[in-house]
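A favour, since you know our structure tokens better than I do. Just paste the record in under my message, thanks.
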Amino acid sequence: MLMAFNIFLLIVGFVLLIKGADFFVDGSSSVAKLIGIPGFVIGLTVVAMGTSAPEAAVSVTASLQGSNAIALGNIVGSNMFNLLVVAGFCAVMKPYKIEKVMLYRDFPINIVLCALLLVLMLIGNSLGLIDGIILLVGIVSYVAFVVISAVKNRDTSSEDVKTLSPFMSILCIIGGLAAVIFGGQLVVDSATFIAEELGWSETFIGLTIVAVGTSLPELVTSIVAARKGESGLALGNVIGSDIFNILFILGSASAISPIAVDPDAIVNVIILLCVTSAVYIPCVIKKSIGRIVGFLCVLGYVGYTIYLLMTTI
């Protein structure tokens, strides 16, 4: 009976995610056009932070409860899913060019942060208060830099684009975000219950079920954005979410309660760093993400999941 009820909640969560993401993208794109800021900047900040709210809730709660495997695994798994599945699947649907500033600023920052996370983990075999403060200072600096740069380079052209009214734009963002967050939480809770009933380990749950569940807002939002031709918002959401996950979520979780680091966690962060760097290479060469690269990304995630099945269960 409980299993059937959780399957029902899983379906409800998916519906909320899809419809919420639809409204959220419309509102965010409209705001970007109304104030003359490129869509990818909104994706890197507002959309990225909003769709990462489930990761924040899960990781901070897990840290408070001492479930370190879920707290850290959620972030590493979510970033892997975002990069390989979200960005990859959107490219398979509709290949897209990468904004120059994102290609040479934000994507490299994401790679550097993966390396920084690895170094912090290796130094003390844990992520503690000092590490948390370093990461939190990083997110404040990053967001301030992105916003200031966007304001300085505001698009003042008189392009005739259809936008919603300011009130409707804000309403769509708030309502859509609420549905996305609540839907994501429903999916995570129900999927975690189902996984535990099947006897899977906490590490595997954190790296896969919880990570995928909390990344569903990024996936649905980016797919909807790509379908609407907002490729900058779609990729900006992925890169911004990955940066936000490491700096803000892990920063908050480790500042609240130290997160112990085991060898498996270090290996997974090394894999994340290698995969992020590998995906960046064709992006620099082509200045875009095509269907072949997108397909390889999705295939890479399938391989990573098989690796987890073999090593963590």
Q: What stands out?
A: The radius of gyration is 18 Å. The chain has a mean pLDDT of 82. The first strand starts at residue 96 and ends at 97.
